[in-house]
Amino acid sequence: MNYAIDEKLTLTIGGIPQSVRIRSTDASLPVLLFLHGGPGVCDRHWVLRDQSSLAQIATMVCWDQRGAGLTWSSKLKSEDMRVSRCVEDAHELIAYLKERFHKKSVYVVGHSWGTCLGTLLAQKYPEDVAVYIGMGQFVNGPENEEISYDFVLEEAKRRNDSKALAALEKIGRPKDGKYASMDDLMVQRDLMTKYGGEDYGESDGIMKSMIIPILRSPEYSLFDMWKYYKGAFFCLNSMWDEVVGLRFDETVPELKMSVYLTEGRHDQNTPIPIAERWFNQLKAPYKEWIWFEKSAHSPIKNEPELWGKTVKDIVLKEEERNSTKA
Question: Quick check: pTM over 0.90?
Fold first, then answer.
C-alpha cells in the first residue's frame, strides 16, 4: 500500500516529548486516534500490523502516552502521572491533529485503559471527539477486579489447577479493587490470560501474548524494548490506584457524540456485565453495541479482519451522516 503520510513524530505534549505515529493514504481523510491500554501498554506494533487497511479511509494516529513506550523518560516522576494530566495530553494532541489536518474533531478508539482516557476525554471535551469507539470498555474499577478474580478462581477450580489455586489463595481477593502489590495483580492477570480471558481460545501467559509480538515488530527496536518495559511498569505503579478507583457508572451518565462499543464476548479483563449495564443506561445521540463472538479483551487482535471492517463501516456511516447534516 502506498501511503501519503507514514511518519514517526516527537511532539511536545504536556511539556514533555511524546512519540506519535501517523499513517494515511490521503491527508484529507477523517482522523482516527488510537488510545492504548495499560496504563503503559502501547499497541502501535499490532495496530499498524493488523489494521493498516484503515489508512485507506482514515488518517491513523497511534500515540505512546505519557510515560509509556517511546515516550518513557527517567526524568518523569510518579507525581507527573495523573489521569487528569493524561486527559489534557490527549486534548493537546487532538488540537495539533485538528489544526494539521483541518478537522473539527477526530474519531477516538479506546482499548482497556484507553477507554478510561477516551471516556473522560469525550465527557470533558466533546468538541474534540466526533465518535467514540470503545473496546474492552472499563467502567467500575472495584467491581471489575472482583469479577475478574472470581473468573480465574472458578476456572482454576474447574481445571483442578492446584498451582493456580495456591497462588490465588496467597494473593487473596482484591479489596476495593486493589491487591496488596502490583506483583499480586500480575499473578491474577497472567492466570486470566492463560485461561482465555484476555485472548479468546489461547492459553499463553503475558510473555507470549504481549512481549513476543513487540520483539517481532519493526515499530520498536531491541533498545526500545527497555523503554517499553520500564514505561509499562512505571505507568502501572504510578497510576493504577487512581485508575481502579474510576466509576463511570456513577460519573459518566451521558456522552454528546455517537458511541460504539466493540466488545469481545469472552472478555474477563474488563468483564462484560459491567460495561453492558453502563451502556444500557448511557445517554448519547446514537449508541450501538457490537459483539465479537470469537474474541475476549481485544477483538482488534482476536478477530482483526472483522474488527477492521466494523470500524471502517462505522467511519463511513458517520461521515455520510455528517455530510447529510451539512
Answer: yes
Whether 212 is covered by a domain: the verdict is no
DSSP code, position 153: H
Buried b / exposed e along 153-164 (16+ C-beta atoms within 10 A): bebbeeeebeeb
Length in residues, the chain: 326
Asked whether residue 240 falls in the same domain as residue 317, the answer is yes
246-276 pLDDT per residue, tens: 999 999 999 999 999 999 999 999 999 999 9
Residue 295 belongs to domain spanning:
5-141+221-325
Alpha helix positions (H), 51-109: 83-101
- Considering the domain architecture, whether residues 131 and 167 belong to the same structural domain is answered as no
Q: What is the pLDDT of residues 177-234, one digit of tens each?
A: 999 999 999 999 999 999 999 988 766 655 555 666 776 677 777 778 888 889 999 9
Element spanning 44, H or E:
helix 44-50
How many Cα neighbours within 13 Å face the side chain of 105?
19
The number of distinct structural domains making up the chain is: 2
pLDDT tens per residue across span 108-118: 999 999 999 99
- Residue at 300 is within a domain: yes
